[in-house]
Amino acid sequence: MIDHIGYPVSDLAASRAFYEQALAPLGISVIMEVTEEMTGGHGAHLGLGRDGNPFFWIGSGKPAATGVHLAFAAPDRAAVDAVHAAALAAGGRDNGAPGLRPDYHPNYYGAFILDPDGNNIEAVFHGAEAS
């Protein structure tokens, strides 16, 4: 089980604005800020999460040379749709519209968006929709 994940971004303010809007449909927001002074000159960092748990971190610095793929669990298909729409409205680029991905498994419903640094952000729901 992963406790938290983080990676550097090229523009912390732009990425903050993107992730705050894109992840709002999942109840995820900035809940912790660490300044450059607090890290002793090792960059500023933002902890996003919910219920007081910062499980997703972004920080100032040089982004990785290759893109990161990070999937956020959604409670239903409507939330996947909402994350995709919010991420596009926040300036993300479509990398796969919401829909079933039966090659993964019959109920895999996901959407993919590229963040400001080109990282592949996904919202996914694994359950069957209620009829």
Explain what the structure shows.
Residues 1-126 form the VOC domain. Keywords: Dioxygenase, Oxidoreductase. It is a single chain. This protein has 131 residues and is of the alpha/beta class. It has one domain: 2,3-Dihydroxybiphenyl 1,2-Dioxygenase, domain 1 (Roll), CATH 3.10.180.10. Helices cover 19% and strands 38% of the residues. The protein is built from 2 helices and 8 strands; from the N terminus they run E-H-E-E-E-E-H-E-E-E. Strand 7 and strand 8 form a beta hairpin. Helix 1 (12-23) packs antiparallel against helix 2 (77-89). The longest helix has 13 residues, at 77-89. It is globular and about 50 Å long.
Strand content: 35-45%
Biggest β-sheet: strands ordered side by side in the sheet: 1-4-3-2
Q: Determine the CATH topology.
A: 2,3-Dihydroxybiphenyl 1,2-Dioxygenase, domain 1
The SS-based structural class is: alpha/beta
Summarize model confidence as the mean pLDDT: 93
Helical content stands at 10-25%
List the helices and strands and how they pair.
Layout: E1 5-9, H1 12-23, E2 29-34, E3 45-50, E4 53-60, E5 69-73, H2 77-89, E6 93-100, E7 109-114, E8 120-125
Parallel strand pairs: 1-4, 5-8
Antiparallel strand pairs: 2-3, 3-4, 6-7, 7-8
